[in-house]
Amino acid sequence: MSVPVLTVDGPSGSGKGTLSRILAHHAGWHLLDSGALYRLVALAGRKRGLDQDDIQGHAKLAAAMDVSFGLEAEHVSLEGQDVTDAIRTEEAGQDASRVAAWPPVREALLGRQRAFAEPPGLVADGRDMGTVVFPVAALKIFLTASAEERALRRYNQLKEKGSSASLSALSREITERDARDSSRAVAPLVPARDAEVIDSTGLSIGEVAARVIELGRRRALWR
Ligand code: DC
């Protein structure tokens, strides 16, 4: 009955998305990109022309929106429309962080997130995966990195995708988003008490993944 869950939480740009993908691939497990759900709620709100302060309206959308994720959460669609690129902009991230501070929206997404826990297992990527959504996860990782390094990673990511970005603006936005995500009253960004905290500053993603794969092996999550 119980499906093994590995949670990967951490601030924006810590590398949790890439790490989660590698781990899901390694284990052959499903992947939940919970940040994408918050991004989708904000985007759905914009598409519907909802007032930016309409908490209940956004919560209703969170419960009712029709979303689907492609293999390894690479492609995302909303009401049948491909929104993979639209939800990945910095603006979409800021929008997501704003709606994510509203308890009714978080509540509305709980069941959706938990439904991803299907055999043979789930890697769940987010901010509150280990603290709120999957409190009894088999392994909880909290991934951090210095704010400078995270801004630089985001900058390189955006550049790779062909978007232009300014490093100083990104740095400012990351600090702002960290502050909002960490200080909100409900499900703030904090490591679960039983999380393994990994600081990835100066480590390659391969080194981080190797460390987590070893932790999973020790807990008999895989061989
Ligand atoms: O991981 P991300 O950058 O795609 O997340 C976008 C925003 O969504 C993030 O700034 C805060 C919010 N979020 C959240 O509150 N809880 C989660 N589990 C995941 C994301």
Task: Describe this structure as you would to a colleague.
By secondary structure, the chain is an alpha/beta fold. The protein folds into 2 domains: 1-12 and 120-214, 3-Layer(aba) Sandwich (Rossmann fold); 30-119, 3-Layer(aba) Sandwich (Rossmann fold). Helix content is 48%, strand content 14%. It contains 9 helices and 8 strands. The protein has helices at 16-27, 34-47, 55-64, 90-99, 103-114, 129-133, 147-160, 167-183, 205-218, and strands spanning 5-9, 30-33, 67-69, 76-78, 81-82, 122-126, 139-144, 196-199. The chain has a 5-stranded parallel β-sheet. Strands 3-4-5 form a 3-stranded antiparallel β-sheet, covered by helices on one side. It is globular, with a radius of gyration of 17 Å. The mean pLDDT is 94. The structure holds 2'-deoxycytidine-5'-monophosphate (DC). The site of 2'-deoxycytidine-5'-monophosphate has 14 residues, from helix 2, helix 4 and helix 8. Residues 12, 34-35, 38-39, 93, 96-97, 100, 126-128, 177, 181 line the site of 2'-deoxycytidine-5'-monophosphate.
